[in-house]
Amino acid sequence: MHIPDGFIPFWQCAIYYIILIVALYFASKWARNNLDEKRIPLLAVLAAGIFAIMSMNMPIPFGTSGHMVGGALVAIIFCAPEAAVLVFTVVLLIQALIFGDGGITALGANVLNMAIIGGFVGLYTFKGLKGKIGIYASAGIGAWLATVIAALACAIEMAIAGTFPLNVGIASMVTYHIFIGIIEAVLTVIVIMALEKFRPDLLAWNKNKIAEGGE
């Protein structure tokens, strides 16, 4: 799902960079108000894990690459897409600069797809379903849907850029990520189950519950 340099015209990259700058502004405000000494290490561990899973990618015919993402996982754990924006800006920048995975000019588009779109879709799917089907099922569905919608957004962006037609992008990007999303859903549920069992205080919805006087 990494878009490399040259796949999107510079003027379109500039638009995505403006979106990134605005997102980073809100993410920095969120970090100042919400990150403490317990949650900063968790954010760092998630960043390292996401770096690892995104490094295991495969080429997609007529597309960019296929891999797990993790934007939904970060957003769900912190109940904030802003957390995903912070993590993915750092991870994608390092991957582009050091490993040549993705591009500097396409950084804004990549953060938009994986962190902003993926984070929002994953979190609000989770919030909408949590009371109906439970934490784990809603987290899994949110992670799967976030992966698929992020891949669709990537295909649309490259169709707008004229890189390849939308039907080709959907056939290659979305189809692959439908299956990749299943693995992402399982991984997301495993991580949340582990935190719920061993460190429930690090999960934002538990923190909110404690603050409201719940159990």
TrEMBL record:
Main location: membrane
A GO cellular component entry from the record: plasma membrane
InterPro entries according to UniProt: CbiM/NikMN
Segments passing through the bilayer: 7-28, 40-60, 72-98, 104-126, 133-162, 174-195
Protein localization: Cell membrane
Alphabetized UniProt keyword annotations: Cell membrane, Membrane, Transmembrane, Transmembrane helix, Transport
Gene Ontology biological-process annotations: transition metal ion transport
Membrane topology recorded in Swiss-Prot or TrEMBL: Multi-pass membrane protein
Family annotation (Pfam families): CbiM
Keyword check for Ubl conjugation: no
NCBIfam families: PRK06265.1-1 (NF004902)
This protein's name: Cobalamin biosynthesis protein CbiM1
